[in-house]
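User: I'm new to structure prediction. If I give you an amino acid sequence, what do you actually give back? Let's try with this one:
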Amino acid sequence: MRADHRRALALLACTQFLLLLDTSVINVAAPSMGRDLDISPAALSWVANAYLVSFGGLLLLSGRAADLLGRRRVFVMGLATLTAASVLGTVANSAALLITARAAQGVGAAMAAAAALALLLMLFQDGPERHRALGIFAAMAGAGGAAGTVLGGVLTSWLGWESTFAMNVLVGIALMLPVRRLLPADRPATDGRGIDLPGAVTVTLGLALLAYALVNAGETGRRATETLATGAAALVLLAVFAALERRAAHPLVPLEIFRRRTLRLANLLAALWQMSLFPMFFLVSLYLQAVLGHEPVIGGLGLLPLSLVVVVTASFADRLIGRFGLRAVLTAGFALVALGMAWQSLLSADGSFVTDVLPPSLILGVALPLVSITTNVAATLGTAEHEAGLASGLVNTSLQFGSVIGLAVLSGVAAARTGASDATGAGVALTEGFGTAFLVGAAVAVVAGLLSTRLVLPDPPAAAPAAPGPPPEPGDVPAPTPTRSRETDT
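Assistant: Good question. You get back a string of structure tokens that encode the predicted 3D arrangement of the chain. For your 490 residues, that looks like this:
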């Protein structure tokens, strides 16, 4: 890997670390915000949820905007928006300002995340180098998600909840300073006159309303009128978006891209692995604190071994893909997710971190980069340069909605099982709820593993042996070798 590419990758990976950290750091700081600013529990939940709604709603639009307006430009705009929103969060003195700051952070995060992956695809072509780059990218994402709980507890305990926003200001500025030097400039594909504005509005509103309905389901109930009405409105808007795209002269999302079987299945698998694995971070942290009685900082540190295993596994995942193939590594990754989640379901109310949490978390730490890297590679396989942002937006959207759906479903399962438990003691009831949720996560991973065996990824054609013949004459140009398509459209 070239030195300039390594530096660019470091910048993009650090950005991904920050964005994933922001999804979890607020969970630890939120109780302190509520006490200091006298925020009601309902409003406090939206300090976290506002980020998820705007992030999920804008990922697809941000990815396409990166293709049309320039990836580096959108990347910088995203970091600048995230940094400005973090300044607002640092000085916020009410629930309304905090929620506004978090929503604006989600807007910036969507732009930066979609553009970052698009830049990575532009820098590294299909093959071992891209696999290695995606491995590092995935490692930083996994580490960021786990580190958020640790860092949130440390910063809130020592410096106050405002420091979780102030950290973003400093890191955001530090990331923006070397952008022009490290990231290549790319020319916009349009001057703006060809942007599909109706499509942009309908898909953004549709995805945002869908994210709202999903995160709100845990609070108002999955059958509540508000949840059902919002979800129905989201589906109508997305159906309108699909109809508009079929007729648009310059569609925001050319629907032909969905004819690629590999892309469709890879995005589904990306959503499924997030559904099965992402809620584990939240539920394990609750188990360590609510059942075993650990402080928030100690509960967060319980996820540190998993983060270290993620980083180590990601460092050699590309070699596994090169030796055994993408489909085999992906299927093995889902098998490990299922094993780890099933083992995690055996935790007990009088257990301990060493016996009940550590062993399965190490297995999940191995599984996470395997499924993350392989789904990203498959979802972007054969992507043309002008589609890099679109492919990035699609897979990021799949990942984000997978995590939101998984957290809503598994948390709901845990709550329902806890409420139905006739066991004596709150700790036992909570543990039974967590165990049932982990079993559901394992079942989702089994389904994903079975689907992954249907992923069609043709091997590159083997070079035919050269027939003996006379040496070429000076000036002869060798004929091009025919290649087989990497994608079968259906």
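You can read the tokens as a compact description of the fold. Here is one thing that stands out. Residues 58 and 204 are 6 Å apart (CA to CA).
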